[in-house]
Amino acid sequence: NSINLKYIKMKKIIIFSLLCIVISCSQNQPNPNFEKNVELAKNWFTTFTSEDLEGCAEMMSEDVEWRSCFYGAPIMDKEAAIKYMKSWQDAMENIKYTPENYLPGVDPETGQLNGSVRTYGTWTGTNTESGKSFEVYMYHYLTFNDEGKIINSGDFGDATGLIMAVAPDQTE
Predict the structure, then answer these.
(1) Residue 87 to residues 17, 40, 57, 82, 93: CA-CA distances in angstroms?
(2) How far apart are CA 123 and CA 131, in angstroms?
(3) Do 38 and 102 form a contact (C-beta atoms < 8 A)?
(4) What is the number of other CB atoms lying within 10 angstroms of the CB of residue 108?
(5) What average pLDDT does the structure give for the chain?
(6) How confident is the model at residue 24 (pLDDT cuts 50, 70, 90)?
(7) ∠ Cα 25 29 30 (to 5°)
(8) Core-most of 13, 46, 112, 153, by most CB within 10 Å?
């Protein structure tokens, strides 16, 4: 009789444990749009580094929100984001992005995978005015709508330090 009670308790513990594993695994299922969005993100970086500003604009939603990597900069709309990108392209030559990875992003309110793409990587190039080369490690995120357009994005890194490092030398 006591063996039967132990068997029933053990059976309940095993069932409960399996149920917990199934629930925890089902909450972290990959978003079905993630792989497609990784390809869109890669295409965006290729388009940007080829200095195809019109192509970049076509990849953005009309109501996109873009976060600059400069201290204190406000969130930008599409027009401001295009000007921001143009300023980078005008200031730098031979721009190249070498991604370290492409990772799934989460909805900031729910913590659930939402198909967005995060990436860490290294930017290299040469400052147009000074001729000085640069290498800077940065983080980016891109969220896409159902039409494959970027609806929000952000850049994080030491942009001010980069600008100061490649600035022309001061003459006295």
Answers:
(1) 56, 23, 14, 9, 12
(2) 16
(3) yes
(4) 8
(5) 89
(6) low
(7) 150
(8) 153
Number of CB atoms found within 10 A of residue 57's CB: 16
112 by DSSP, 3-state: which? Answer: coil
pLDDT at 141 exceeding the cut of 90: yes
What would you report as the CA-atom Rg of the chain, rounded to the nearest whole angstrom?
23
85 pLDDT more than 70: yes
- The span from the CA of 82 to the CA of 57, in Å, is 7
Distance CA(122)–CA(49), nearest Å, equals: 13
- What are the distances in angstroms from CA 34 to CA 17, 25, 55, 104, 142? 30, 17, 22, 7, 11
Burial of 126 (0-12, 13-18, 19+ CB in 10 A): middle
CB 67 within 8 A of CB 75: yes
CB < 8 Å & 24+ apart, contacts of 159-166: 159/68, 159/69, 159/70, 160/70, 160/71, 161/136, 162/134, 162/136, 163/91, 165/132, 165/134, 166/126, 166/127, 166/130, 166/132, 166/133, 166/134
Percent of the chain residues topping a pLDDT of 90 = 65
| Three-state secondary-structure class, residue 159 | helix
Q: For the chain, what's the residue count? A: 172
Supply the pTM of this predicted model.
0.80
